[in-house]
């Protein structure tokens, strides 16, 4: 079994000078994000040399730092060698100014707005029933996190290569990624017999299982067609593997239901197949279309993979700690169906009674509620939190190859935003 080291969330940054201010002084990231909202368009070809200053705080003292524009310029002048940045994130600083999903994607808001407009035309108006089914998912309150990752990595890596704007292939990749993700959600809801998705009725509930399966199939096929038209064999192989991974993940999950001997490594492999594979392909594909070298592309792959794993672990924690109203679906759904996630796997190491309850498939009244309390009471949640933080730290480390910019800050913020959900 993979060992999980207990890492503090209070990571310490390496010394890094920004106009006389060390990196272990915490950025007032709220100020940076607001600054970025106004000035982000200037980071690709417009607005270089701006003289605005950003303040950062070090405990009670404040110091002025030079414009983040100049930080980017100095990095570009130094070639692809990265500015040594933070090796982790201090959630205590983040808790003072919580990150909302809206703030998170401010710097690529225009890109996401364009994506939203294009999605309907990409799915195809000639299939009104399938379009209605897809629209049910598109409009169900998703944050568009995966295409946002494409845009953020695209813009962060474009700076390394001196690109002045995103290419059409960057934008098409983001659209393909969102279509694949949407198709997987439609199929997941059918397989899990879920009635709700983000608080709304699922596609198969509204249109029936037949239409739901066909809608998912159609979107996989349509995304594959657009993928082939990108004419980049490396990206085609990368994204095609994701679709294969989805199926592998579902098979692994179905074959291990109520199996109390499932190992943490097996859980992580399944989580990679079902969640992290798509994120990793999104971030690596974006770097490839920016013309980044193999080292940068692989670092972006590692970032997406570890962010995806951390997100999955956090989702699995929230399945125990949030209400049905907060989740938009019944609580402890995975456990009730025999899908054993990180909190349960850790709890099983300490609580033999939990094994008996699970292997009985909750045949007795009140046994599911008892199992939930056992998971909460014997450290399963806390150890899963450590695992989520460990993967988050690895994701942050992978960003060290990028120059400091609002786009890299947003990628770091995404890691912190995820951990804030369990802070």
UniProtKB/TrEMBL annotation:
Its cofactor is Mg(2+). The keyword Metal-binding applies. One of its GO terms (biological process) is plastoquinone biosynthetic process. Transmembrane segments: none annotated. One of its GO terms (molecular function) is prenyltransferase activity. GO terms for cellular component: chloroplast. Keywords: Isoprene biosynthesis, Magnesium, Metal-binding, Transferase. The keyword 4Fe-4S does not apply. It holds the Pfam family polyprenyl_synt. Belongs to the FPP/GGPP synthase family. This is Solanesyl diphosphate synthase.
